[in-house]
Write a structure and sequence with these properties.
Number of domains: 5
CATH topology of the largest domain: Immunoglobulin-like
Radius of gyration: 48 Å
Largest sheet: 9 strands, mixed
Helix content: 10-25%
Length: 461
């Protein structure tokens, strides 16, 4: 291998050597780097090619016969990390591919192409960009640094930071040195996400890393709004990162400063989850809450707001009005109503959607669901069951008016029948009293016969 290099060097000393400018290649650590090397002459195949790194010797070489060789230091590093695609040789393309590049791979590379009596040398500067966080998973309140290094560092380059696809302009804590840029601060949830370092030089390169801050992960940030329907069951979340076991945990409602203690802890929750469960949400439950716990000697806390929704019914002469009310409507952009009914088989069907905070119903009993939306989509919903009597009050009033005469007539006939029955009962009782005295009965019977006889004689005359 050494002999081949000496021979190639002697050959190069007797031929014309063409040198071009240095090509810049910026890649992220761990990715693939492609170092360009092309023969600009129309016919330079077959050719001998040597790839070498400045001050480190041969990386890869190919003879005109097609035989390939790797430098000893490269053939033993994590397997075969360097190669040139054979399919490109006949096109004069001898670009070198380096897999899983490392910081130590950065530096100046030379590609020498020998054909006929010429040697063409291409210079490629490979720069490795690496972004790292220390520590990788800090706890809230810990010191954390995010660094961007370029190996070797290009003079005159400058760095921009992107956090979660948005330009990050730190006000304090940025340190620039000869190798890159370092950002330092206290770990908070606002630093969680994907950090991207953009290096601006002759070319633009970038590299990224993910920073996770251990602490309270649910809710993800302070003053998170949670929506619940009146009478529903709700869990106010307060979950710490896996592996963290908080002590001295506490819940409090910030309006009155009183502690809120769950009636019972859900056995299915892990030791890092201190969420608070409300069995039946009431209007008085609305407001701001704070959960807190001690982790590694420091208190971590998170605030949230519970917003309660309800449907209020108002009756009119021939209709019912339903209004969707929430205790805080600052984030609500739209309301919509859906009428839900069920057939005899229990199949659910939904009617057309109506817009607005208030809906007016006529003869529409059953379930009505109010859904309310914010800027990013639905926030919650609440359902109300309209009683059948309320929905059909107008029909029943009309039916009563049309049947009033019939009811009155039936009542009068029933009254006459009761009077007749009462009179019959009195006559029966009177006869029973008379039959108890036989002499009196004979006298009454005789008088009755005499009166009948007198009547008959009068009629004959």
């Amino acid at each position: 291998m050494l002999l081949d290099g000496i021979i190639f060097g002697l050959l190069a000393s007797f031929v014309t050597v063409a040198r071009s400018g240095t090509v810049e290649v910026l890649v992220e650590a761990g990715s693939q780097a492609v170092l360009p090397c092309k023969c600009s002459t129309e016919s330079c195949h077959p050719a001998s090619v040597i790839w070498s790194k400045a001050n480190e010797g041969t990386v890869w070489r190919k003879e005109r016969s097609g035989l390939q060789y790797w430098g000893s230091s490269w053939s033993q590093k994590d397997g075969q990390r360097v190669r040139c695609p054979h399919s490109q040789f006949d096109k004069g393309d001898y670009s070198l591919q380096i897999e899983r590049v490392k910081e130590e791979d950065g530096g100046l590379y030379l590609c020498s192409i020998g054909f006929r009596t010429h040697v063409v040398t291409n210079r490629v500067m490979l720069r490795i960009i690496k972004v790292s966080a220390n520590p990788l998973v800090p706890t809230q309140g810990d010191d954390v640094s995010v660094s961007c290094t370029v190996t070797p560092w290009p003079k005159g380059a400058f760095v921009n930071w992107i956090l979660n696809n948005k330009v990050f302009i730190p006000t304090t804590g940025v340190i620039s040195n000869g190798d890159g840029s370092v950002f330092k601060d206290k770990a908070t949830e606002r630093l969680t996400g994907t950090w991207t370092c953009i290096v601006n030089y002759i070319k633009v390169g970038r590299a990224s890393t993910t920073l996770s801050v251990a602490g309270i992960i649910q809710p993800p940030q302070d003053d998170t709004k949670l929506y619940a329907a009146l009478g529903s069951t709700l869990t106010l979340p307060c979950a710490f990162s896996p592996g963290l076991t908080p002590t001295e945990t506490v819940w409090e409602k910030l309006e009155d400063g009183n502690s809120v203690t769950p009636k019972s802890r859900d056995p299915s929750l892990s030791s890092s989850d201190t969420s608070y469960r409300i069995q039946e949400v009431l209007l008085d439950d609305s407001g701001r809450y704070r959960c807190a716990g001690n982790v590694k000697g420091q208190t971590l806390s998170r605030t949230m707001q519970l917003v309660v929704a309800q449907i209020v019914q108002r009756k009119k002469r021939d209709s019912v009005m339903l209004t969707c009310q929430v205790t805080d409507s600052s984030e609500i952009k739209e309301y919509e109503w859906v009428h839900v009914t069920y057939d005899l088989n229990g199949t659910e069907s939904a009617g057309p959607v109506q817009k607005g905070q208030t809906v007016t119903l006529k003869n529409s009993w059953g379930g009505w669901t109010c859904r309310y939306y914010g800027r990013d989509g639905i926030l919650g919903n609440v359902t109300y069951q309209v009683p059948m009597m309320s929905g059909q009050s107008g029909q029943k009033s009309s039916a009563f008016s049309s049947n009033a005469g019939t009811v009155t007539g039936l009542s009068f006939l029933l009254l006459i029948l009761l009077l007749v029955l009462a009179q019959m009962y009195k006559n029966h009782q009177r006869r029973k009293r008379i039959f108890q005295y036989p002499a009196l009965e004979t006298i009454v019977h005789t008088i009755s016969n005499e009166q009948e006889e007198k009547e008959r004689r009068r009629v004959k005359e």
